[in-house]
Amino acid sequence: MEPRAGLNEQEPHVARMYDYYLGGKDHYPADAEAAEQVLAALPDVRLAAQQNRGFIHRVTRFLAGEAGVRQFLDIGTGIPTAPNLHQVAQEQAPEARVVYVDNDPVVLAHARALMVGTPEGRTDYIQADATRPEEILEAARRTLDFDRPIGLSLVALLNFVPGADDVTETLVHALPPGSYLAMTYLTGDFDPEGVAATAAVYRERGLFCEPRDKAGIATLFKGLDLLEPGLVPIHRWRPPIEPPASMDTKIPGYAGVARKP
Length: 261
What we know:
CATH superfamily: Vaccinia Virus protein VP39
CATH architecture: 3-Layer(aba) Sandwich
Oligomer: single chain
Number of domains: 1
Low-confidence stretches: 1-6
């Protein structure tokens, strides 16, 4: 892959490591090396990445369908992997509007080319850092109406964000009543040693990574009404078929969806 402007390909990036887990081609040797270190600590991390993608699809179908949401703000988008959120949402509701946010120049390059929505709807991309939620909200208002419900997606993101509690609070505070927060978060509850070693791989490369236990993740939903089945392992949030019990020790993360009263 050719280097992008403003990009240091010698340093790994969370989005490009995630692309490696998903079997993509938009990463550099530094990303692959770091990702292989994570795979040594968590051999099922590829399965976890796939489950995060599946969660995004299930949540988006629910929000655009049953919940009637027509606006989406997806922060920490990552390198596009079809179907993307806007494709899922606009399949349910062609008029849906979607705003993507990421801070990786590689994601930006793909977003410009790939994130084209339906004629009835609209998609936009914001190059911004999750640690600056006020800037994200200001830019998102170009596309989204903050007087109408919004589906906020923070999937596989907040464990990489310093000050995640403040960031989440700022974002949720700006959402109108009837909005939803969908989130997944890394945990060591099921494999403490593997997740600790994984976090160390990121930190050693200058990347923030802070796993939490279930109680710590639950605090990010304060003031919101968690939907059934609550805060559960990612693969157990409303799956189309019951997953095997053997998966419960392989997916190191929780998922939850909550509504703002």
